[in-house]
Specification:
The complex is a heterodimer of chains A (about 290) and B (about 300). Chain A contains 10 helices and no strands. With about 290 residues, chain A is mainly alpha-helical. Chain A starts with 16 loop residues before the first helix and ends in a 6-residue tail after the last helix. In chain B, helix 5 crosses helix 11, helix 6 crosses helix 8 and helix 12 packs antiparallel against helix 13. The chains are: A mainly alpha (about 290), B mainly alpha (about 300).
Chain lengths: ~290, ~300
């Protein structure tokens, strides 16, 4: 069989790993759907002040409990606020809270996991016993306890949800570090005179970022769901903030005569979490070397 | 075997002490003043001082911890600020409703999850498999509080088929249990599918088929039982999620249970009740995981033999 070099033409340059991952990602229909949905949601969140048909906080006494119509696509609430505008504004809040809480979880989890897995010894023992204890409390209850101690506010929700996710992430990163530190390149870096801190940060960290990024992405969906749950229970955002969990909670007393107030924010949460999960799963499949041909 | 059981039960003690310490630290050390939270920020300086004295918050932290731990070891969980009753009595009155809900929810999740997972594994990429994949993905994305409200809207308020909170018997348990179990159903069905698919490729299953055993016997008697170990592990984890889930479901369906007690304790700044209820919920989680470990011995004789020779 003739190859490019055999006929005198230069061989095509090997495609980069990023391009290969991107190609595999876009070939996965579920991942592409997740990415497309997520892109629409992020766009809606960014442009909500511009495209929102009504101010999300402005009451309109003449439009109280108006059902979905051409004027109000998702109807209005008990003081005449446009539900569509509030759901749109809520996208910005929920995505920001989910992302901020996940960044907090990721940062703390990577620091503790790296310290525990690479340093070993007493640091590992102390961190892992702490993680074991924190994992014995279900995540939502842990987040509730932190939110209760900090008081009801959106910033406290970010802290509560972020901290509650740290133990699971720390254990995961530690596992990746334990596997990575046995590699030959780590031994080579040590033999080359690198300090322990440099080996951990420059050689091990870049090799665990893939799995950490996947778990971090999937964690955004969990964080959005947990934050909405805290707001629904009255321990998160406070009125009149257009946060999805809070809008839903405010609509539950009028479920029979105004079903739309609680229905649409719930659909928004489900679509957002679903798109994040599809995106995260797609990223996992694209990055997982075992699936490579 | 008895030694293993003893060791496993004893191993839960440090975990429970750790959980107690963690909950104590979260509620006492985080930058918040419990007296301020109890008074909702409306008390004067002298009223705050008297509140701190009344609840023993003016004692050094280590003293508070030691006193509360001592009381806990004597079986005293403190007195509820809201109800004025011993917290242990409150917990005992709320616990049965939560256990009933969690067990029925878990039952729905296990039965439906294993059934769907098995059907999906027998016909990979068939319509049941695709439906179960979509169902699992949707199940883990839908917020349980929204699902509960939608079930109430459709089956209680619109169709009038099921009661929301009033009445007694199994009818009032259907919607809360389905709401609670849906998330876990998705998780269990996916795991049961992949575990059974792996088991069906093993040599002993091929041998059973080669012997001419009917497909039903091969799947139900040989493959399914051996593929259940990962499912049992996840059931332990899911029990924790179900315990958390009762917080939401009991609030949506206005059911009196431990989950509702936790939410009310936070709303009314009832810290003794909150601390004790969180501890009880964590105990349930830790014990469920211990039971999962113990159940391995019954499901897989190799683990039983290994434990027996180790112990």
């Amino acid at each position: 069989m003739l190859t490019a070099s055999a006929v005198g033409r230069p061989a095509a340059p090997p495609s980069s790993r990023t391009a290969e991952v991107a190609r595999r990602f876009w070939r996965n229909r579920k991942a592409a759907l997740g990415a497309a949905l997520l892109a629409v949601l992020v766009l809606a969140a960014c442009l909500s002040p511009l495209v929102s048909p009504y101010p999300p906080l402005r009451p309109s006494p003449e439009d109280v409990f108006a059902p979905p119509s051409a004027q109000h696509w998702m109807g209005t609430d008990e003081i005449g606020r446009d539900v569509f505008s509030r759901v749109l504004a809520g996208a910005r809040i929920s995505l920001s809270v989910g992302l901020a809480a996940s960044v907090l979880t990721l940062a703390a989890g990577v620091v503790f996991g790296l310290l525990s897995g690479y340093r070993g010894g007493w640091a590992d023992a102390v961190i892992m016993r702490g993680v074991d204890v924190m994992l014995a409390v279900p995540t939502l209850l842990f987040a509730l306890a932190i939110a209760a101690a900090l008081g009801s506010a959106l910033s406290n929700v970010v802290l509560a949800v972020g901290i509650a996710g740290v133990p699971r992430f720390t254990r995961f990163v530690r596992g990746c570090v334990l596997a990575a530190r046995e590699n030959v390149y780590v031994e080579a870096a040590r033999a080359g005179g690198c300090s322990e801190a440099r080996v951990a940060v420059r050689h091990i960290l870049p090799n665990i970022y893939g799995p950490a990024l996947i778990l971090g992405t999937l964690n955004v969906g969990v964080s959005i769901l947990t934050a909405a749950t805290l707001s629904f229970l009255g321990m998160g955002a406070q009125p009149p903030t257009p946060e999805w969990g809070l809008i839903l909670a405010q609509g539950r007393d009028n479920l029979q005569n105004a079903w739309w107030i609680s229905t649409f924010p719930g659909i928004a949460i489900a679509i957002t979490v679903l798109s994040v999960n599809l995106f995260g799963d797609g990223l996992h499949d694209a990055l997982d070397p075992r699936l490579r041909l | 075997m008895l030694r293993f059981l003893g060791r496993r039960v004893l191993a839960t003690v440090p975990a429970l002490l750790g959980v107690y310490t963690l909950v104590f630290l979260v509620l006492h050390v985080l930058p918040s003043d419990p007296a301020m939270l109890i008074s909702e920020g409306s008390a004067s300086k002298s009223q705050l001082e008297s509140l701190r004295h009344e609840y023993g918050l003016d004692r050094p932290l280590w003293r508070q911890y030691a006193d509360e731990m001592g009381a806990l070891l004597r079986g005293r969980l403190g007195r509820s600020i809201r109800y004025g009753e011993p917290v242990s009595r409150l917990i005992m009155s709320f616990l049965p409703a939560t256990l009933e809900l969690a067990l029925v929810g878990l039952g729905i999740a296990v039965v439906l999850g294993i059934a769907l997972g098995t059907l999906a594994a027998l016909r990979p990429h068939g319509w049941i498999d695709n439906l179960s994949t979509i169902g699992a993905l949707t199940g883990v994305s839908i917020p349980s509080f929204w699902l509960g409200l939608m079930l109430i809207f459709v089956f209680s308020l619109s169709l009038g088929w099921l009661p929301v909170t009033t009445g007694s018997g199994w009818q009032q348990l259907i919607m809360p249990a389905v709401t609670l179990g849906l998330y876990s159903t998705g998780v269990i069905s996916r795991l049961a599918r992949s575990s059974l698919m792996q088991t069906l490729r093993l040599d002993y299953v091929v041998t059973a088929r080669a012997k001419g055993l009917p497909s039903r016997t091969v799947v139900l008697r040989h493959a399914l039982r051996n593929s259940l170990i990962p499912v049992v592990t996840i059931v332990g984890v899911e029990l924790g999620n179900l315990l958390s889930g009762t917080v939401v479901v009991e609030t949506v369906f206005a059911r009196p249970g431990l989950g509702r007690l936790i939410v009310d304790s936070i709303t009314y700044r009832d810290y003794p009740a909150l601390q004790a209820t969180l501890l009880v919920a964590a105990c349930g989680y830790v014990l469920a995981n211990a039971l999962v470990d113990i159940s391995y011995c019954y499901l897989d004789p190799r683990i039983r033999d290994a434990q027996a020779s180790y112990g």
